[in-house]
Amino acid sequence: MKVAKKSPDTSSSRATLTLSMETYGKIDQLRGKQSRSAWLQQVVANEEKRREREELLERIKTEYIPEVIQETLRINDGFPLHER
Length: 84
What we know:
Layout: H1 21-31, H2 36-63, H3 66-78
């Protein structure tokens, strides 16, 4: 395992991660020609977007109460587009 110390708290915006060599290998395999830092920043950004979508989905699920479901089905019956 590669061991690294976290950078001391300074005004710089850098930090160090401690990862196993296996994890470094996986990162190198997945990132292609992209730098580790850029690739990891992209992974973090994608994860943030994914979590935002999940949170939105959960909010929508709680707001989609049975009454709304029944109203949607009633409206759909009035406009049978699927029968065309």
